[in-house]
Amino acid sequence: MAFDLDMIKKVYDRYSTRVEAARKATGKPLTLTEKILYAHLSEGDAQTAFGRGVDYVDFAPDRVAMQDATAQMALLQFMQAGRPQVAVPSTVHCDHLIQAKIGAVEDLSTAVDVNREVYDFLASVSDKYGIGFWKAGAGIIHQVVLENYAFPGGMMIGTDSHTPNAGGLGMIAIGVGGADACDVMAGLPWELKFPKLIGVKLTGKLSGWTSAKDVILRVAGILTVKGGTGAIVEYFGEGARSLSATGKGTICNMGAEIGATTSIFGYDEKAAAYLKGTKRADIAELADAIAEHLTGDDEVYANPEQYFDQVIEINLSELEPHVNGPFTPDLAWPISKFATAVKENNWPTKLEVGLIGSCTNSSYEDITRSASIAKQAIDKKLKTQAEFTITPGSELVRYTVDRDGYLDTFAQMGGVVLANACGPCIGQWARHTDDPTRKNSIITSFNRNFAKRQDGNPNTHAFVASPEIVTAFAIAGDLTFNPLTDTLTNEAGEQVKFDEPQGIEMPVKGYAVEDAGYQAPAEDGSKVEVIVSPTSSRLQLLEPFKAWEGTDITGLKLLIKAKGKCTTDHISMAGPWLKFRGHLDNISNNMLIGAINYFNLTADNVKNELTGEYGPVPATQRAYKAAGIGSIVVGDENYGEGSSREHAAMEPRHLGVRAILVKSFARIHETNLKKQGMLGITFADNNDYDKIQEDDTIDITGLTTFAPGKQLTVVLHHKDGSTESFPVNHTYNAQQIEWFKAGGALNIIRKQMAS
Ligand code: MIC
Ligand code: SF4
Fold this sequence. Notes:
This protein has 755 residues and is of the alpha/beta class. The strands form eight sheets. A seven-stranded mixed β-barrel has the order 22-25-26-27-30-29-28. Strands 6-5-2-3-4-21 form a six-stranded mixed β-sheet, sandwiched between helices. The longest helix is centred in the N-terminal third of the chain and has 22 residues, at 5-26. The protein is globular, with a radius of gyration of 25 Å.
């Protein structure tokens, strides 16, 4: 049912020709990344775009995947595009809106109730436009995609930043905003700045406590949250081939945390085995026939420095397990140094909750390795000290590990199984805590750990590690414990030590499931009606944004000058706000409420220049909007890091912010701003950030001659009557400038489809 063999055949049919042509045109051996990209250039660009150094290139992705929290906006936009059906195979996954509170069964039934309107909307839009629909409880998008849709050498975009998970099966899978998904579903080419290439050579072999997760935790430590920006990370070497396909998925998934466009592994025996194990032997057979093209050329891997922009080498035999955090995923600690770091930094040593699973780490291998630790706790009479939860990534995995007895083991050690959904990972967690003001620690096998991410509490110190390390920590209940070397006192008062975890890559008896949770769309959806109630608080049809007025933008008020980290969680918080993801006006009430105001170092408290009073960011902006005055948001480095949610771009657009001026942008967010017709600009000289004062009135000039590569000018009118100006950069190409002028890319599509 799920995968589309004909589509894959078509991709593979043109593959060899494209790769050969590219080799000839560039006169060089090719990396895997280049091969897949070249094989997916859209027809127009296919002849001209070989060779790097080209800027924006048009691609033709094979698939689109959307999760419920972003699909609503993507599909509300698609409905305006005027097409009867999607142009490429697409799926919707209901995973983000399920709140973890009691346990899987109860939480799922509450979610189905609470989110009925949204689920019904997504199901009917999917039915109408030919989109595959995965019901609530089916699992988390990236795990379901890996099990059903990812294929070696393919290209997919997804409305979620962890879409790169499919790189574990050799697919170029890239996280985008809903507007990008809308283009591809409408049959338009998809544009991407041709990426830089980072090569990661893995030598040696994992053993003992070390797992695939530790590879990416280490890479995050090396590259930091910005280091992968604009790059695709390609893993290779004997070490790479020794990793399971799901382990590779974990590494690619968390590549989002270093800002990478995506990450990828070549097709190998492990990938073939996983395809066969998940009932896709026919895909493995097709892939075998073009296997030489589904990996980088030998010359490239023999001399990677000549072909990659940057090369990192990691010896898996020497790699230690890592724990990263708190508050940022790139603060990497080898386990041998972690206890000292905890003490020196005064992080709360008592561990309150350990959480395993999520889209990042809930494979059969992960679960069996963690269960082997849990089993030891039972056998060695250790009492689990912290709370412990398990979030399976999909119903397929859940059913299988349940059948094989692992969920029982977790239950015996005191674990609680949550629904197959994002839950605590995205702040959908009704955590029971006696005192939220207490500094406290949790550890997860998820990927993000920004402040407030899991439970909305700024006092929570969240750390990230592999599921087996998380399990051991949860049993110990103490962050200064080193499971590799230390002993624990058991209920009989004896000192006991953990043995190394043991796992099984894939179920010996095969994967099984009763109801995977898939609903195929109608053959002919033209009669299907999509209903959005005009009084709904959760869904709202979109109104087109206004086109640019044709002049410079002047007289802007400074809405906020954000200081430090300003992720999409700061700009458009998730958790309780997820329920408004389909209602632009309502969700706009969370705009920038997490950002720290440079002038008073508080969140959600900015000066209203019309009254001189301080108030919440959204209310202040609504006051400017009501007065017909535009505003500007100023930010720091890597602004918009994290999620793909385009709400972080649409909310300011909807409320009348005219420009975002920052030191640098995260990739997806920058594109999202452009798509929505917003002006996203960067300081040419970062010191100019310091010139911006709270009471400034600001102009942006040069817009009447807005052109690629040409700087614009920002003019500050200070309160004391003085004026200062400085140049700012932008990365808009000719097409994107048209989006700006039209007031958003969708306004252009709508016109094209109507004509
Ligand atoms: C996340 O991990 O932050 C999310 C929630 O999956 C987001 C998507 C969203 O905000 O809906 C992402 O990573 O893109
Ligand atoms: Fe869901 Fe978390 Fe994965 Fe995002 S990172 S898709 S919130 S499980």
